[in-house]
Amino acid sequence: MALLEIRNVTRRFGSLVAVDRVSLAIEAGEFFTLLGPSGCGKTTLLRMIAGFDEPDEGELFLDGKPLAGIAPEKRPVHTVFQSYALFPHMTVAGNIAFPLEMAGRPREEIERRVRETLSLVHLEEKGEAYPHELSGGQKQRVALARGLVNKPRLLLLDEPLGALDAKLRVEMQVELINLQRDVGVTFVFVTHAQQEALALSHRIAVMSQGRVEQLDTPDRLYTAPASRFVADFIGKINLIEAEVAGNAHGHLMLRSAMGDLAADLPPDARPGARGALALRPELVRVAERLETLELRNRFAGHVKDLLYEGDVTLYTVEVEGGFVIEALLANASPGRARLFKVGDAVAVGWRHDAGVFIRG
Fold this sequence. Notes:
The chain has 360 residues and is an alpha+beta fold. It has helices at residues 42-50, 92-102, 107-120, 136-148, 166-183, 194-200, 218-223, 228-233, and strands spanning 4-13, 16-26, 31-35, 57-62, 65-66, 77-81, 154-158, 186-191, 203-208, 211-216, 238-248, 251-256, 259-263, 274-279, 285-287, 297-308, 312-319, 324-330, 345-350, 356-359. It starts with a strand and ends with a strand.
């Protein structure tokens, strides 16, 4: 039995359907992420799990028991917010101790648990410091410690890294992974940052307009998106409009305005079906001459634009007919003596199994 079950939950605000018949099952010990753009319903769903809001329809179960009518403070759940929500007049130890004090735990137990939790988040020397004396990363660790000190069944994290700068955000991602593994508490994480979700999660529910578009492991979401929305939302992607022409030699043959394309053969593809070939830029090769690309899909063109990012360069290549393909190339690739420049004549190509055909 799953630790948390969400069954056909709907939440409306007037005419707006914020969460639309969502069903999920989250396992004990899982790092589970709700991912999507602003307004997709992920935070509303998190608030219903926490008890700050109630569904209009559907039910939520924790350990098989319904959560309806149970006040937030009575649920074995704690929420960590982006704003940290630390008490400025309390020390670090006081902030962490607060949930235990509210629960009326004995002083000896409170002191022991605070020491243990400070050690868990590597803040043993900061117990007597105040929040204004801490860095952003340290404040976030205090907020996590306060959430973990009373050993909740679920820790809910609402954009917890959103206030941190890029470098610190990456460092905190590693700390979150290690912390979740060490404590074994189930994390339900809300974010709009795709790379963050891919790096942290065991499974991800991608949400759009109140619904779950796809629920899968990070690698499946990235390599086998089930819809255009998921393909476009997770990372960079080329979406090439195409129609199924048939199959040959175990390949799916697609007809597109660029020309005929060979793709992997999905089980439900039928001639005439319309959709798009989803192709990741890092799977596209770029060469100086067309004949050097021994690939089923290859086109001559020229470099229209480029974005140098240090270790990689993102090229935009325009092929015949005005179509553009993005290609992501490592700048240290063997045999590459120079970077391509804007205006260079080049060829682009990709393997038949590099892209995924998405119907509709």
